[in-house]
User: Which sequence fits this backbone?
């Protein structure tokens, strides 16, 4: 079936390790302004860090959703951030939500506290908001995700949306070896988001693609040798990305799981090949949380 803009989310066609339920995805924007060093999407979207709105988004959505069963999950967005700074003026993501809310389960994935502007709208229907927080260290965040809102603003967004009754998932993702994988960093994030009202945490380790690797070592040249050894000597290549070694991933993510469970939240990993660490009571992306809203 041909879809213009709301498309089946299909990371499986490349045999990825994704354990998400079937869902659709729509990206109102192409590219992103947050400039994260570790970004994966920049490796396959042209001119990625020059974000631009897509043409005729609303018109195409109306046509596409005629063929999408009601109550399906529709993600906004899987290969860009729907709350880039331009969204403040353009309100394109908001208009997309207006078209979908009430008929579909809307899953927002963002790194911006601007999502709180749309909290009342999201609370009117089935929705889940995933907010990515990799560290509480403001200086480190400014280096690795320089144009994204600060971690503190994101924590406040978790609290504000939770207070409005919108289930919030936090993506502790990616965990970057040598930078954010220590006990204190992980524990601080988990404690803060649990206190703010998050329901579920999704986590994964940094995967190397050549363009994100070049950005990473240009900002952290002293870690170049450590990264090269961990990823290219000890690690493994899975579906076009270099992963840290399995025993490292299992150790770190088991530790995160223990801390998350200690706070009474549910937990899952993302594309790690470690599904035994995922809670069975909730879909890995947290979209099933709408059912218990
Ligand atoms: S917010 Fe997401 S899409 Fe935007 S640069 Fe960062 S990782 Fe990439």
Assistant:
């Amino acid at each position: 079936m041909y879809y213009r803009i709301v498309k089946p989310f299909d990371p499986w066609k490349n045999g990825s390790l994704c354990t998400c339920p079937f869902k659709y995805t729509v990206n109102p924007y192409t590219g992103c302004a947050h400039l994260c060093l570790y970004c994966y999407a920049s490796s396959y979207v042209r001119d990625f860090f020059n974000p631009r709105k897509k043409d005729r988004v609303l018109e195409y959505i109306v046509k596409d959703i005629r063929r999408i069963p009601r109550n399906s999950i529709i993600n906004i967005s899987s290969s860009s951030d729907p709350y880039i700074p331009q969204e403040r003026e353009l309100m394109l993501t908001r208009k997309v939500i207006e078209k979908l809310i009430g008929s579909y389960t809307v899953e927002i994935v963002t790194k911006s506290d601007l999502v709180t502007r749309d909290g009342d709208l999201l609370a009117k229907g089935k929705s889940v908001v995933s907010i990515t927080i990799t560290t509480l260290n403001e200086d480190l965040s400014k280096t690795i995700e320089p144009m994204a809102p600060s971690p503190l603003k994101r924590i406040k967004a978790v609290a504000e949306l939770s207070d409005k009754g919108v289930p919030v998932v936090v993506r502790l993702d990616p965990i970057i070896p040598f930078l954010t994988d220590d006990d204190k960093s992980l524990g601080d994030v988990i404690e803060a988001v649990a206190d703010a009202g998050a329901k579920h945490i999704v986590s994964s380790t940094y995967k190397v693609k050549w363009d994100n690797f070049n950005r990473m070592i240009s900002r952290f040249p002293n870690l170049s040798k450590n990264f090269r050894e961990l990823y290219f000597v000890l690690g493994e290549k899975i579906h076009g990305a270099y992963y840290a070694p399995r025993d490292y991933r299992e150790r770190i993510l088991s530790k995160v799981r223990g801390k998350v469970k200690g706070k009474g939240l549910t937990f899952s990993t993302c594309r790690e090949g470690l599904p035994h660490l995922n809670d069975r009571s909730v879909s890995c992306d947290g979209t099933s949380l709408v059912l218990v809203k």
User: Anything to note?
Assistant: The chain has one domain: 7-292. Residues 7-292 form a domain with the TIM Barrel fold (CATH 3.20.20.70).
